[in-house]
Amino acid sequence: MDFSSFLTSLGTSFVIFLVLMFLFTWLSRKQGNKVVYYPNRILKGMDPCEGDSSTRNPFAWIREALSSTEEDVINMSGVDAAVYFVFLSTALGILVLAGLLLLPVLLPVSITDHSVKFDNTTSNGTFSDLDKLSMGHIEEKSPRLWAFVIAAYWVSFVAYYLLWKAYKHVSDLRAAALMSPEMREEQFAVLVRDIPPPPEGLTRREQIDSYFKTIYPETFYRSMVVTNNKEVNKIWEELKGYRKKLARAEAIYEESKKSGKPEGTKPTNKIGFLGLIGKKVDSLEYYNEKINELVPKLEAEQKVTLREKQQASAIVFFTSRLTAASAAQSLHAQMVDTWTVMDAPEPRQLIWTNLPKKFYERQIRQSVVYVVVFLTIVFFMIPIGLISAFTTLEQLKKLLPFLKPIVNQAAIKTVLEAYLPQLALIIFLALLPKFLLFLSKAEGIPSESHAIRAASGKYFYFTVLNVFIGVTVGGTLFSTFKTIQKKPNSIVTLLGTSLPNNATFFLTYVALKFFVGYGLELSRIVPLIIYHLKRKYLCKTQAELKEAWSPGDLGYATRFPGDMLIITIVLCYSVIAPIIVPFGVLYFGLGWLVLRNQVLKVYVPSYESYGRMWPHMHTRILVALLLFQATMFGYFGVKKFYFTPILIPLPILSLIFTFICKKKFYRFFQATALEVACRDLKETPNMEVVFRSFIPPSLSSEKSDDDQFDDALSHVSRTGSIV
Length: 723
What we know:
Blueprint: H1 3-29, H2 34-37, H3 39-43, H4 60-67, H5 70-111, H6 145-178, E1 189-193, H7 204-215, E2 220-227, H8 230-259, E3 268-270, E4 280-282, H9 283-308, E5 310-318, H10 321-328, E6 340-343, H11 359-390, H12 393-399, H13 404-407, H14 410-429, H15 433-442, H16 448-479, H17 481-486, H18 491-523, H19 525-537, H20 542-549, H21 556-574, H22 581-601, H23 614-638, H24 649-670, H25 674-677, H26 687-692
Antiparallel strand pairs: 1-5, 1-6, 2-5, 3-4
């Protein structure tokens, strides 16, 4: 790609962003669109337009985002959202402070080196103006390379300083949330797994109650035995489905009274396959009959489940959150594969099917999943390498000669050069996240937030190894395959000299991500279109309408790894091609603004983990930093710089920094510090409310009578100790 194509790509992306931003301003004013642009505020019972004016200018949302505080973010979207903004601010700070030295120092050093001839370039015979701004423009063994050595140290120390500050700040945020006087149900419970078989003469409930009553005689409240809910969930989902269909049929019937005859027209449906074949019946009567059949069936299955399908896992409740915090981090049994106790996640987070999985089964599952992820990463490198190699215009013209007349036209050529490889890559990556989340849950992880953290880790390593390294290796190997065949030892040199050239690809990739990606995020065009189509053609009830505009959460499983790919790219090329740094600053700066607006007004958190994602964010930024340091070491070797070993301390310092941070901060993100848990609550907790919040919906009884739950949902047992 030449310089003019790059500028065209950048300009096009910027124009698209401006169009989408003005579209957002216009669409968000309309009353019928408020549920798409302000759902978080609406669900909290707030005025969606509070603080807005009907004549707001296109940039008013920027002022509102900038004026918001961290407390506002926590109140609207929780601590996890605030921690995500700490990550964005830290990444932005690293790039801004790095750029203060890199841009005014390295660019003049590169551009004023006239010793490199035009044919000694990294652009495969076509000299690019961007190469003049990169380290590739510096002559081998040149003393000018000292400036780049100093820059590598500067970037590293800036990262250490800001990451340390951020870790301390997030730790304070987590502590403030956990010591809040407000009652949170999960703080009074622990999750117990790997319960051994009950002794003869004792039920599972009596076994658990006796065990914990002996250890915690003053504060033990009661226990809830985890059950196999497969059958009861199936009936409950079926019942819920018929109730939704009944509500829809009633809404259609009421609508027919207004638009047609006063007595209305009763809706009908076919009861065969997918409602397309079979006998036609009165929908209202049919759904009522089905509901009346399923209610007693559900109640009977609930009793069977609670009495006969108990598993070797339970949730145990205490009247003190200090006791619960202490129990969650204590060793209860002599053997670690029995009576495993951990802090309970929020009730909405529990993955019930994973709770009974045994200790060794979880270890085996985790190992198998890691092997599958490794194979996925290895075999995905092949198609991504092919995408990188085949989506260049020159390769397309060689492979598909009939396209030459089309792609040789100036306008089409410019657009294809600018967007083809990047779009192919983005679409390809969009297929992966659900598969990785499925694998993470298959490990036996007990909560949604933990599964999302695990999935985001897999996705991060996938994107770094396949996108960053895969694109660089793929693009290089394709164009130099014959050279490598003749001289296999030249691969390091070839990869090194290709880095500045690949920086142009990544410059465009970053620009496309922040201008077009954040433009679509802000404008919410796709959710808006889907909502209006559903409202017009599908939604008949208020519940269906609410479901149509429900925004979901921020999507940490994919959003954070996407951000990490950008910080990895920008860090690794920050010294080699410093011109990429402003693009990284724009990405994280614009992301901070756009997502601040979305978190305050749009997204609704699906869980709260009180910042447990942060240690993973911190570690992965350090992984990106290590990759940057390794890249610099290799590239200085390519440049035949005699003092390259002076960079050896950098990765060592990074590993020491990682070790110190883990030892100092990480434990508090694994368990709640007792000095935090001992703070007084605003009021004495209602333990029955706490207990009932953990009952799965399929086991909740509509009757006030609690007798049917007596076997699994225990009162304190009167039996003796079994400890």
